[in-house]
Amino acid sequence: MQPKTLLPVVFVSMILAGCSVKKVAINKLGNALASPGTTFSADDDPEFVRDAVPFSLKLMESLLAESPRHRALLLAAASGFTQYAYAFIQQEADEAEDRDLRRATALRLRARKMYLRARDYAVRCLETRYPEFGAKLRAEAQTAVRAASVRDVAPLYWTAAAWGGAISVSKTDPEIIADQPIVEALIDRALELDEKFDNGALHSFLIAYESSRQGAKGTPEERARAHFDRAMQLSGGFQAGPLVSLAENVSVQNQNRKEFQSLLERAIAIDVDAKPEFRLVNLVMQRRARWLLDRTGELFLESK
Fold it and tell me: Is the Cβ–Cβ distance between 82 and 161 less than 8 Å?
């Protein structure tokens, strides 16, 4: 090799090595940030978590800008934005509605944006294994989801949860409501692959969803109660979510005030310290339970 060509080659090698080191560092940080743990889930201060989570989410997005196909980071971003939208934006919107409709509307619009952001990260996670999965999902959802395997249950769930969340805060938007069959295809495939996923999370989701399902066997109430029973079994009865969901989505529909109050009181009575890994989500759901109990008079026409 001639001396005059040596310097450019060395220089390029140094740049490439630097890029490689940077990517390795980014991926390692991404793995650490995305790894499941109890730093947030076991926290006993939801307001503290509310203030801390945006920084973590933005850090994830910064890392994804450098490593856009990092599957674990994509999944963490999807779950993080979905949970933040529900626990800290949608809940606040619901609580604000009676006293400040304009603020509630603005918060729901913000929640929708967060849910759609989460959905897009979840779809990108699936596309690391299935190219153009998002386009195929829109073209023929039932066919697209058949490609997914058991290792895809988490992104399937978070895609459905985020998309379903966006639909729930967009009840006057027919375009996004029309996406409901896609949500159904995603959650049903996840359930088929691993119905025990995340301590019954799929069944908890379906407690609320069954009232919207068309053409299924049995009544929506029967299906919702079956999912409730399984969710309680898989969570060992340590999660407030299924109790709140059945109260809000079935007891209110049936105008069964006694059951509504009983379910919510059971949710509030759960010891949040019994299972530290459920602590934060239980505190969030207990807050919703108390809010629902305060609205009992508005939700029920007569005592039952």
Answer: yes
- Mapping DSSP onto H, E and C, the string for the chain reads CCHHHHHHHHHHHHHHHHHHHHHHHHHHHHHHHHCCCCCCCCCCCHHHHHHHHHHHHHHHHHHHHHCCCCHHHHHHHHHHHHHHHHHHHHHHHHHHCCCCHHHHHHHHHHHHHHHHHHHHHHHHHHHCCCCCHHHHHHHCHHHHHHHCCHHHHHHHHHHHHHHHHHHHCCCCCHHHHCCHHHHHHHHHHHHHHCCCHHHHHHHHHHHHHHHHCCCCCCCHHHHHHHHHHHHHHHCCCCCCHHHHHHHHHHHHHHCCHHHHHHHHHHHHHCCCCCCHHHHHHHHHHHHHHHHHHHCHHHHCCCCC
Chain mean pLDDT for the chain: 89
- Give the pLDDT score at 46: 86
- Per-residue model confidence (pLDDT) at position 30: 60
For the segment 231-260, the average pLDDT, to the nearest whole number, is 97
Q: State the Cα angle at 163 between 71 and 192, rounded to 5°.
A: 70
Q: Is the pLDDT of residue 164 over 70?
A: yes
Tell if the pTM clears 0.85, that is, is over it: yes
Terminal C-alpha separation, the chain: 91
CB atoms within 10 A of CB 209: 23
Instruction: Please check whether residue 74 is in contact with residue 122, taking contact to mean a CB–CB distance below 8 angstroms.
Output: yes
Residue 17 has pLDDT above 90, yes or no: no
d(CA 146, CA 58): 33
DSSP letter assigned to residue 155: H
**pLDDT band at 212; cut points 50, 70, 90:** confident
Q: For the packed helices 180-193 and 153-168, what is the interaxial angle rounded to 10 degrees?
A: 150
pLDDT at 24: 62
The token pair at 106 is 């603005």
